[in-house]
Design goal:
The complex is a heterodimer of chains A (about 110) and B (about 110). Chain A is globular and about 35 Å long. Chain A has strands at about 5, 10-15, 20-25, 30-40, 40-50, 55, 65-70, 75-80, 85-95, 105, 110-114. Chain A has about 110 residues and is mainly β. The model of chain B has no long low-confidence stretch (mean pLDDT about 90). In chain B, β6 (about 60-65) and β7 form a beta hairpin. Chain B contains no helices and ten strands. Chain B is globular, with a radius of gyration of 13 Å. With about 110 residues, chain B is mostly beta strands. Classes of the chains: A mainly beta (about 110), B mainly beta (about 110). Chains A and B meet through β5, β6 and β10 of A and β3, β4 and β9 of B.
């Protein structure tokens, strides 16, 4: 158990809908990362937050957005969903924002868009 | 932007040493190299991280040549439980830097 929690574990929704994925980082960790893992694209970095502020942006679509709240939990919002958005979404946290700090991954949220 | 490539799969036998190489030709000056292990239906788990030369911990070694354009994860005396997918992750050296995963290497350890 990494100490990072993600809810829900599974999510099934229809095209065009909007969903919110939630992540609680390990106690004391200030940085949160979001990743997408799909069969054809592999693991893709989406976005990073540190203490409430956006720090780095990866291959995140304009239909997707995220935020980190004052209690440090984070949410990833996916809208106008398409079949290709079906994937595993992982959240990871680290104590600080730099690359030398180990990231701890949550168990993921499996999103299925039908 | 670091493009990161790894072999798709490797086979080994119990007790052997396994070396998995990751190529990252466009690595930036401040980027770090991190290796993760992933089992089915689980999140990746940290194995080892380095910036240059050699790093060793209780489960693996990481070799990084002087030009830092590649890195090699070395797993000594693998066991069946090491069967997993191994990913290298490069980036994060500066604020706003992308983090780029390799495509993953599926390691199969046979008895």
């Amino acid at each position: 158990d990494s100490g990072v929690t993600q809810t829900p574990k599974h999510l099934i929704t229809a095209t065009g809908q909007r969903v919110t994925l939630r992540c609680s980082p390990r106690s004391g960790d200030l940085s949160v990362y979001w990743y997408q893992q799909s069969l054809d694209q592999g693991l893709q970095f989406l976005i990073q937050y540190y203490n409430g502020e956006e720090r780095a942006k990866g291959n995140i679509l304009e239909r997707f957005s995220a935020q980190q709240f004052p209690d440090l939990h984070s949410e990833l919002n996916l809208s106008s969903l398409e079949l290709g958005d079906s994937a595993l979404y992982f959240c990871a946290s680290s104590v600080e924002q730099g690359p030398s700090y180990e990231q701890y991954f949550g168990p993921g949220t499996r999103l299925t868009v039908t | 932007l670091a493009k990161t490539t790894q072999p798709i799969s490797m086979d080994s036998y119990e007790g052997q040493e396994v070396n998995i190489t990751c190529s990252h030709n466009n690595i930036a000056t401040n980027d770090y190299i991190t290796w993760y292990q992933q089992f089915p239906s689980q999140g990746p788990r940290f194995i080892i991280q380095g910036y240059k030369t050699k790093v060793t911990n209780e489960v693996a070694s990481l070799f990084i040549p002087a030009d830092r354009k590649s890195s090699t994860l070395s797993l000594p005396r693998v066991s069946l439980s090491d069967t997993a997918v191994y990913y290298c992750l490069v980036g994060g050296g500066n604020a706003g830097n992308m983090l780029t995963f390799g495509g993953g290497t599926r390691l199969m350890v046979k008895p």
